[in-house]
Specification:
Blueprint (H helix, E strand, L loop, with lengths): L2 E8 L1 H5 L3 H9 L4 E8 L3 H7 L9 H8 L11 E9 L1 H9 L12 H5 L1 E2 L5 E2 L2 E3 L3 H11 L12 E6 L2 E6 L1
Antiparallel strand pairs: 1-3, 1-6, 2-3, 4-5, 7-8
The structure holds inosine-5'-diphosphate (IDP) and magnesium ion (MG).
Length: 170
């Protein structure tokens, strides 16, 4: 058994198209459990940090706007964030999610079924899925606080803020 965790985001295009239910149903084929979930209004800082590895790409600014939902107006500036856990979770989930380019993604995959490339060249591919264990850890720590996840998956430490104990990622 190789138990892994990963971050899944239903991106703003997935929210806007009311695909959350369909996406979660598809992901449930993996038999993974959800150990954290929330709805997030994504700040520019979080968007930039999330896509830090792509900061030199020509599409970086559009991507940062896309994950914040800026392209869809104020009603759709949100994502749904999930932490999944299970055996061989990352490769199993990546298969269900499909390739980055929605036109190259298998037609039965989530991105193949629901994604599109806009006329401006943006890959609207409906979901984010961590691609390896170290990326998953970086992303989960970025999006979730320790107390928002119901299992102890990474080391934490306790600090004192205003005389109160606070648990943060170590
Ligand atoms: P992934 O989401 O499949 O892990 P990454 O390479 O991490 O793919 O890219 C993050 C996101 O950036 C993609 O999901 C997609 O929305 C966007 N993206 C990646 N490559 C391109 C591209 O060549 N053109 C336009 N958008 C892209
Ligand atoms: Mg990636």
């Amino acid at each position: 058994m190789k138990i892994e965790e990963l971050l899944i985001l239903v991106k703003p295009d997935g929210v806007k198209k009311f695909l959350t239910g369909n996406i979660l149903t598809k992901l449930s084929e993996s038999n993974m459990i959800i150990i954290g979930s929330k709805v997030v209004k994504v700040s520019e800082k979080l968007a930039q940090a999330h896509y830090y590895h792509l900061r030199d790409k020509p599409f970086f600014n559009e991507l940062v706007d896309y994950i914040q939902g800026k392209v869809y107006g104020d009603s759709w500036n949100m994502v749904l964030a999930f932490v999944y856990q299970g055996d061989d979770a990352i490769s199993k989930m990546r298969r269900i999610v499909g390739a980055t380019n929605p036109e190259e993604a298998e037609s039965v995959s989530i991105r193949g079924s629901y994604g599109r490339i806009t006329t401006k060249g943006l890959y609207e591919n409906v979901v984010h899925c961590s691609s390896n264990v170290s990326e998953a850890m970086r992303e989960i720590k970025l999006w979730f606080k320790p107390e928002e996840i119901i299992k102890n998956i990474y080391a934490t430490k306790t600090i004192i803020v205003d005389k109160e104990k606070k648990i943060i990622w170590a």
